[in-house]
Amino acid sequence: MMKESTEFYTCLIKNRLSGERFKHSIKTAEMCRELAEKHGYDPKKAYLAGILHDICKEESEKELKRLIFSEPLYQSPMKLGIGDSAVCGLDPLEKEIPKLWHAPAGAVYVREKLEVDDTELISAIRFHTVGRENMSKLEKILYLGDLVERSRDYPEVEKYREYALLDLNHGMYEALKWTINDCLQRKKQISLYTYEAYNYYLKKG
Ligand SMILES: [Fe+2]
Ligand SMILES: [Fe+2]
């Protein structure tokens, strides 16, 4: 499955990221491991997803563009590939907003450059910023682990951490509600994946 050890990947991201972002990656990994232990998932794999999730966060726009626009599936309509691939087409907002590029680019980087062939891990990285409907357990663990890791200090983070530790689906619902609310407040556009995820977890969570 993984070509290298957790220590190898930790060292790799330490060299690729600033001190602050490296710390955030370790904290996310620890939170993912905690969520995995709580919800019956492989803690080692969850930890690794946390370590790798922001691997392309400090990459140049040019390189991010190269990574995502060279991936044929990202140029397909969104959702093409669900079930048989770890990557799905970019939605219109993902194509437009560079801030969203590090997640799909990270998925391609991990698959191509690190030769990781674990589709669960790759799709968790791909969807860690926008989410989607009907997420895998690892996708939910990473999405939530990133949001509620223990060095985050936005108001009421403890409440969202509690939700995530109690129930992943309800945790997703609360997190998506918060995210969409935040987009409305700050007059930001909402990704179609996020919108679909909200509708899905509203019923499910
Ligand atoms: Fe990220
Ligand atoms: Fe992150």
Q: Would you give an account of this structure?
A:
By secondary structure, the protein is mainly α. It has a single domain (6-153), classed as Hypothetical protein af1432 (Orthogonal Bundle), CATH 1.10.3210. 62% of the residues lie in helices and 0% in strands. α1 (6-16) packs parallel to α3, α2 crosses α8 and α10 (168-185) crosses α11. The radius of gyration is 16 Å and the shape is globular. It binds fe (ii) ion (2 copies).
Which descriptors apply to this entry?
single chain; mainly alpha; globular; 205 residues; Hypothetical protein af1432; binds fe (ii) ion; 11 helices; 62% helix
Question: Could you give the topology of this structure?
Answer:
Elements: H1 6-16, H2 19-39, H3 43-52, H4 61-69, H5 92-96, H6 102-112, H7 119-126, H8 137-148, H9 157-166, H10 168-185, H11 192-204
Bound molecules: fe (ii) ion (2 copies).
One fe (ii) ion is lined by residues 24, 28, 53-54, 146.
